[in-house]
Amino acid sequence: MKPSTSITPVLADLKSSVPAKWQWHLHALLLLRARLQRQAKEHLTEAEHPRNDDNDFAAQASDESEFESLISEVHSEEALLVEVEAALERLRLGTYGICLASDQPIPRPRLRAVPWTRFRREVAASLEN
User: Fold this and answer.
1) What's the chain's average pLDDT?
2) 60 and 89 belong to one structural domain
């Protein structure tokens, strides 16, 4: 899918302004953003399809369960998309790779594994506890 002409200059500016050491991360985040947007759209389209209206309660229960599962996936995708967008903004601002809690650099292996992360591993673990 070709990006619209209104977005292309913004992406070009972002790509040229991001330091070379973060180009892999930028590419990974842009690919992930595109995939999440596509999946969320597909899941919402699936969820909009009419459900089974017959009196088969098992079919109705199955349809309802599938619908709830799709909506749950959409919410998860949207939450991750927010994190990805925030990481792209940090790249744009030049603050990518710095832990938001400790102001220390986030190790490269962690950023490769979780390119949208905002925290060093030990900080994230302590926040989860």
Assistant:
1) 85
2) yes
Per-residue model confidence as pLDDT tens digits over 9-43? 567 778 888 999 999 999 999 999 999 999 888 88
| Angle, CA of 115, 43 and 32, to the nearest 5° | 15
Tokens 């699936």 locate to 46
Domain count, the chain: 2
pTM: 0.75
The span from the CA of 61 to the CA of 110, in Å, is: 42
CA-closest candidate to residue 29, choices 72, 90, 76: 90
State whether 9 and 71 are in the same domain.
yes
| Domain assignment of residue 108, given as a range | 97-129
Alpha-carbon gap, residue 32 to 37, rounded angstroms: 9
Please calculate the CA angle 11-29-1 and round it to the nearest 5 degrees: 60
Identify which has the larger pLDDT, 56 or 25.
25
Structure token digits, residue 5: 């002409």
